[in-house]
Amino acid sequence: MVGYEISFYFFFIAMVYSSVGFGGGSSYLALMAIFGVDFQVLKIIALLCNITVVSGGVYWFWKRGFLDWKKVLPLTLLSIPLAFLGGSIQLTERIFFLVAGAALILAGILVLVQKQVQNQSKVERSGSATINMAVGGGIGFLSGLIGIGGGIFLSPFLHLIRWDKVKVIAGTASFFILVNSMAGLAGQLSQGNAIQDWKPVLVLIFAVLVGGQIGSRWGSGKLSPQKVRMVTAVLVLFVGIRIFVKYL
């Protein structure tokens, strides 16, 4: 099942990712894949940890006025049902890891691109509601399929089109992760996928709860958000390539 020894890694991932508005789903997924966790169960665990981490972040962003519902809702309108649909699709182990590996590689590249875009311009243009709905729906479906919240895909895209200010994008990504993790989890459970041994899973959830609270309140210490994203991108790229090559 799930080893207690990875709880420290989950704590660290939650602390780092929450400091920049992410839930950490991609890295939970990658870490469990390396540790050999059953590929059906690992998606449920990653989504539960996502929900635990970003719930507090969403409240924080909402309380400080960084959630613009008129702009957020078009992104999530299609993403929620499509995340549920993606979560309900049952893939073979090999196909799942090929898709997950490719998605992680893409996510790592997008995070690197995000850093460059942020350094170039602060011009804001939110784009059309139709485009936002289409992009949100596509990311939602992929997120549900592989068991992540999708913020690691959405945030770089929003920075690329200069959708809004950095804090607003971070708050939007957190809310997007929360609702799509819930929808993807519902899709997984609708197919009868379930966790048999809850004890180690609860340890992991507690670890990300503590890490997420520290990250969202205190940030990442001496590391700037840009450096955190760079470390995240390198980690996700490395693991994505490793998983993809292994199952190719």
Give the secondary structure arrangement, pairings included.
Layout lengths: L6 H12 L6 H10 L4 H25 L5 H9 L1 H10 L4 H28 L8 H18 L4 H10 L5 H25 L7 H21 L6 H23 L1
Helix pairs in contact: 1-10, 2-3, 2-11, 3-9, 3-10, 4-7, 5-7, 5-9, 6-8, 6-11, 7-9, 8-9
Characterization of this structure:
This protein has one domain (4-247). The mean pLDDT is 84. It has 248 residues and is mainly alpha-helical. Helix content is 77%, strand content 0%. Helix 2 runs antiparallel to helix 3, helix 2 crosses helix 11 and helix 4 (69-77) crosses helix 7. The chain contains 11 helices and no strands. It is globular.
> Which value, in Å, is the CA radius of gyration?
16 Å
Morphology call: globular
Tell me the fraction of residues in β-strands, as a range.
Answer: under 5%
Residue stretches low in confidence (pLDDT < 50, at least 5 long) are: none
Number of spatially distinct domains: 1
Specify the biggest β-sheet.
Answer: none
| Terminal-residue CA separation | 25 Å
The whole-number mean of residue pLDDT values reads 84
Approximate helicity band? over 70%
Structural class: mainly alpha
Number of strand segments: 0
Counting DSSP H or I runs of 4 or more residues, the number of helices is 11
**Can you write the helix and strand succession as a string?**
HHHHHHHHHHH
